[in-house]
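Hello again, I could really use a second opinion on something today. I've been staring at a protein lately and its backbone has me curious. Please have a think about how the structure follows from the sequence. I owe you a coffee for this, so here goes:
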Amino acid sequence: MTPRTSGAVRRRRVPLRYLLPLLFLVALLAMLMLRGYTHSEILADHRVRPPAATDQVPHRVLGGGPVIDARKDSITTRQVPRKKLVLTFDDGPDPTWTPKVLDVLKEHDAQAVFFVAGTMASRHPDLVQRMVDEGHEIGLHTFNHPDLSYQSKSRIDWELSQNQLTLAGSAGIRTTLFRPPYSSFNDAFDNQSWPVTEYIGSRGYITVVNNNDSEDWKRPGVDAIIKKATPKGGKGAIVLMHDSGGDRSQTVAALDRFIPELQAKGYDFTHLTGALDVQSAHIEVTGLDLWKGKAFVYAVQASEHVTSVLVAGLAVIGVLVIGRFGLMLVLSVVHARRTRRRDFRWGPPVLEPVSVLVPAYNEAKCIENTVRSLVSSDHPIEVIVIDDGSTDGTARLVESLRLPGVRVVRQHNAGKPAALNRGVANARHDLIVMMDGDTVFEPSTVRELVQPFGDPRVGAVAGNAKVGNKDSLIGAWQHIEYVMGFNLDRRMYDLLRCMPTIPGAVGAFRRSALERVGGMSDDTLAEDTDITMALHRDGWRVVYAENARAWTEAPETVQQLWSQRYRWSYGTMQAMWKHKRAIIERGPSGRFGRVGLPLVSLFMVLAPLLAPLIDVFLLYGLIFGPTERTIIAWLGVLAIQAVCAAYAFRLDREKMRHLISLPLQQILYRQLMYVVLLQSWITAMTGGRLRWQKLRRTGVVGSAPGIPAQPHGGDRRPVG
């Protein structure tokens, strides 16, 4: 015991690798929220107020010019001089149409005013910079394009400030020009929109409407657009057009005719302040405001790239999920039909005795059930319990049972691989069965497990691990995972001859195969995966015996589950890295390296890492839309998983009632597995070393085959 320091509290520092997955998720959520914000999917208001009375609007505004200056108490309006044309473009910049519009303007030496929406400008800052560089003028068109007559003053300020922030980040400027969304002519001001214009004037902006509306958004044809845009009698005009919001090919074609035709009639196409011969509307931004704008635009660009990557990842996971389930279903059907034929035999019946190894470290809660289940085996066995330095009396408990054929081998605590190697050294028989100290075998398990050794090419056999404590929600989730995710996988890998893991709870080996690959290794935390890969590389077949059932105690708390899966994930990565040379080798090793390792990488690492994208986009779609299509797509994926799960349960003769929790498992359990896998990646990339994660056992899996027993009384102890 460490002495307690008086008046002092020892604080445990949380390792960075535990915080990084959470920080990554928070950053990902922030990127998605920013993307939704800049695509008008969040905080957008698409209501448009119908016309109202006009008795509160000054007559000089209703009958005045389209340039309205309400910055002072005396409101003034101005007209564009004769033979001056100010082309204005709303709602952009658009990555497709704005460059075409700019090209036409540049070709005909014309200038214009672009009233940009902040949502578009933040996503395409290069186009805003091009507008400024080519001598055009920029005006604000709000950030999210709402009808401002519905909005509060704080929302109006926010729309303006966010738009200015975007201009600062895109081109290093501010502007004094503003055009309200859904605006048209002076006589369209009413008692709802005019107070907004007055307020915007008080904030230092000049409001600009128009004289001529080309109505290009209706796509009426090039001739109609030109006719609507052309002023009469040589008058000057502000012309409304659009460079975004849909197909603007007619707008571009109309400009290419409209500009030279009116230039030939003596019209000058210039920006607004040039036409009015006043100070430029652009104000240079410097200092902190400039860097705030650049940071915002950079964040928006990052969110766009992140979303693109996520969409690509979603496509990949869609292919992987559907491909994996399709492959599992087809190959599982083939495997089941092959192994369940009446005339199917691995070879001559295996009747020789077997050595069963039970590594044990502080297994007092479970070990009695384990060894009692073994002595009821219908196959001749010897049982060797290797006590790996237990401190809870595990060895004494086994010896006190005085069960026939059961002996105890003691060693100082050296870890599970060393305990198994010690057991192999003490085993009397050539066939070795390995199991965990918390696992219960059925009477036929050993017999079913060793029958594949009738084929001399078989070096190891994976049994059918089952969850014994499946009555809790977490247990039910793991039960689904074991039946569907593990056992369907094993059928598939069996046919493909690249089984990645012999489960530590129930597996069998030839002694000669173990000796040829050097026995169990402590190089990784997944010694079962490591030894399986080594056997493949040595040319041995590794097969699956579905009827060799073993009942194991699954973790019962989230913390225990996290510890177990973290070790599994990290250990699998270690084993893959250890055997990476198999990819370039020849013979059996090369076959496993070019078939098995890619499949393990895809289905056990990449797919679980990307799988939560399905739920991320479900949440995103529910909030931002399209909701209906999002729900249908998610339910479609769930339906595919449900079909696979139902088929797996049918193959294993399991009750379907546990599948009720499948939807909740997919939402919650998948996120936990994702975070565990992400943490494993971070641990691997940062060079961290993960120590053995010891689980707390309760002894709930009883000795009666497949029937959970009630836990023994007394305190809970950490058992393996």
User: Anything to note?
Assistant: The longest strand covers residues 541-552. Residues 59-285 form a domain with the TIM Barrel fold (CATH 3.20.20.370). The first helix runs from residue 16 to 38.
